[in-house]
Amino acid sequence: MRDYRKAKEISKTLQQLLAHKGIFLKRGECLEITAKSLGFNDWNTLSAKISEASNFTNRLLSSQNQARVDEVSKSGAGLSKIEEGKARVAIPFANDEFEKFVGFYSMDGLLPIKVYRKGDQFYSQMKGQVAVELFPETPTDFFMVVVDAQLSFSVDENGNVSGFISRQDGESRFCTKISKSISEELSNSLDKRIAEGEPLSSSEHLLSELIAGLISGNPNYSVMDKMLADQIRGAVGSIRPELLKAGSVLKICFVGVLDHGYDIYHVKHENRVFRWVIGVNEQEGKIVAAYFNAGG
Q: How far is the C-alpha of 103 from the C-alpha of 181, rounded, in Å?
């Protein structure tokens, strides 16, 4: 019987097994698959359950109360999970100092994220997911406890916030600060695309170009964001033989939209069918995510 408390081990094994078959998924994507296979809505929900089960409770009050922070830190109850050999501990943080971070952000130009304060606690919430509490580590860096993740806000010399860098499971992504009205537009657009089965206008073309580039061994890295380009460079030698064996592309059919805005396609080759997922930041004209596996 699968133990949900071993989810990270299950996810790592899944990633390794898929890699041996030429299927390269990000760690975060494998964590999401593992969570759903264990009956949870998403990785954040499962991770919170794991933390609860292991008595990893952290009611760190982001506080103006130095004594409370000292008490929590000294007891060790406020330590987050260890990342990069460093135990993360909350620092005193005035509530009004958080106000400049409050607002709406966009990941990949697709997914709206809300950052807000409730009393003396700070939260981040992606559309369609549970809110996750943030704990201050520096004047601009915040960490999470239920997941191994950090948000580092970008603040200019005048105190204006342009966005934040999200770091989770070895991956980094810049999220741009946007207005409430743009956040609502993104949310409504995503809901509409999911309900009506509407792909992004450029995703099929970019996917076709990507597959052709992988088959030739010379992908067009200029249409990828840096993180994806680095991943493809490291994996193209393993991916290409799999695609060559599949034969020429005969048809690309749109299937649907994932909750976070990536498009799903079935790609029919001469010898087999692959299921592709592609994410595109259309404002920048860049592919931000792309992965495939066998079957429809």
A: 11
